[in-house]
Structures are given as C-alpha cells and as structure tokens.
Write a structure and sequence with these properties.
9 helices; 336 residues; single chain; five-stranded parallel β-sheet; binds threonylcarbamoyladenylate; binds magnesium ion
Length: 336
Amino acid sequence: MSGSNVLETNLTIEQAADLLRKNEVVAFPTETVYGLGAVATSDAAVAKIFTAKGRPGDNPLIVHIGNVSQLESVVSAIPDTAKRLMDAFWPGALTIVLPKHASLADNVTAGLDTVGVRIPSHPAALALLKKVNLPIAAPSANVSGKPSPTTARHVADDLSGKIAGIVDGGEAHIGLESTVIDCTADPPVILRPGGVTKEAIEAVIGRKVILHEPSKDTESTPKSPGMKYTHYAPKAPMSIVKGDSVFFQHVIDEAKSRTESVGILVTEAHKSTYNADVVISMGNDAEAIAKRLYDALRAFDAHDIDVIYCESFNETGLGTAIMNRLLKASGYRVIE
Ligand code: TXA
Ligand code: MG
C-alpha cells in the first residue's frame, strides 16, 4: 500500500463536494489532522467510514460544519458556556459535545444522544464544507489504531483503494487532533486534550474545567488481551522514559545487551545525545513536536527494530496533548 500514488486520488474541492453529495467518503485536510468525511445525515454514507477505517461501531464521529448557521441542524441545544467557546475558538481545533439533533444518522454518534461538533479553520476544509452545505462526519483519516494522518501521503498509505479520493492540502498545521470538550456536563469535561489548551479554555469561560485522565486501567495494559483501545501505535512496542540523559542511555544499553535493535524518539536538541540503532527527532518546542509526532511514529515502521524508547515531556499547554498521545501509543508503558 505504501508507495501508492497520491496524485491518482487527488481531488479538487468541487470533485470532493460532488462525491460527498453522492454519499461517497473522501479525505480532506484540516488544521489538526486529515479527516475522512461523509454526509452526516446518511446512514449508508457514514457506514462507509467505519468500513474503510476498520473502526469499532461504538466509537462516535465528530461532525464538521462550515458555518455556525448549520449548528441548528446538528445540535438540539447550545448552553451559554458552549456559545462562549464557539465565539472564542471557532473556526479551530475545538470539538464541542452537545445534545444531538434528530436529523443526524444514528451511526454518527454510535447511538449516543450527544454529538461532537466543530468548525475547522483550514481553508480547504472550510471551502469544502461550504460547498457541500451539509454537516460532514469525519474521524481522522487513518486505519483504526494507527497514528492520525498529517499528510495526504499518510492517508494514501492507509486508505488507498478504500476511499473515493483525497484533497491534498499539504502538511497539517497543528498535527494533533482537536480538543474534545463535553459541554453537556457542568463543569465541562475535556474528554481529549488537543489543539486548544485547557488553560486557554479556562481563560475564556472564567472557571476550571475537568480533564478526563485516561488510564491503563480503563484503556489498555500490557496484560490486556485485546488491542481494542490501542491508538497511534507504531508496530514495535514503545515505552516512555522518565529521567535524565544518563538514565535514558542506560535503558537503551540494557535493551541492546538483550541484543534488541533499539529505536528512540527524541527532541531535535537530543538527536546526537544517545547511542541507538534508529534515532527519530521531532523538533524542540511543543508546537514543533506536535506537528511532527505522528509522522515520527509512522516513520519507525520503515525500520526493523524491536523496541522504541521515547522521551517524556512537560504536561502543560500543548504538552498535555502530546503526552496523552504518547501514553496511548505506548500502551501506558512508562520506565522511571
Ligand atoms: O481534530 C480532529 O478532531 C479530527 C479532525 C478530522 O477533525 N478528527 C478526529 O476524529 O480526531 P476521531 O474520530 O479520530 O476522534 C473523535 C474523538 C473520539 O475520541 C470520540 O470518542 C470522541 O471524539 N467523540 C466524538 N463524539 C463524541 C460524543 N458524542 N461524546 C463523547 N466523545 C465523542
Ligand atoms: Mg482518530
């Protein structure tokens, strides 16, 4: 599949809009990651998303709109807090969970009575949504379990031949998914940290929100029999290393003494600090790391390695989302 020709499936906005109206699924760029879209009012169209991704039917999809005027066809109520968040962060990387409208296909929300909705800021996404003028359900355009796609090439590597085409908008600006906030709860709950930080949300609404912390108990453990809740995972098992550079090298050396081939994921500044078989670096500040993280995780799959060790990052601002994804990608294995 990798090596497939992106140009074969590269769509104009007009072609993508036509295909969506014909209940086909197409991938399109957003400022967070690429999405795999289908008309959210069609059960049959939405079903094609689940099939193409191999996504479990109990995982609800985010609905994308091009204009706030479309909200009334997607949600049935807009609490004041939600309104303030929309004013502050839309278009942008914030998905707001609200009571759903009856016109949405049931499979969009996996049978829940709530729906996650956002207006993306990427010009190509906005142009497409405005052209179709219907709400578009769109999860990240990856095969379920793999890192989200931040380029059209990533989408093609995962879904070529399984979808009607891709709108190529270059590299995603943020590189991590939107923040998902449940505004049916009071105080609101961040279900997934992402492109909009908890700090920024609290500044807008003037009070604290709750950050739902996924844990190895609720999601995945090395002992867990299934892979059901594995996300973003490279093929080789990954662990997060907490400690100084001496400890990190010690962990690498121990693995090497077991004759394992070791890959490491580090900041640009630490590119030459360690002795390992494969070194992949991601930039230094949180923005740069977020932007390159999924590409870096995908890049390990091209190498024949037995284990991956990754540096740990501060959990403030965008760092919260980065560590959330790394913990999931590593199945919550942390060495300290
Ligand atoms: O940045 C993003 O959000 C990207 C782009 C394409 O918009 N989309 C994305 O979708 O990441 P997906 O399907 O990969 O992740 C959606 C997340 C899942 O964790 C899902 O469980 C949660 O949002 N979600 C969606 N609807 C929900 C609802 N009604 N209640 C609670 N969680 C919901
Ligand atoms: Mg996803």
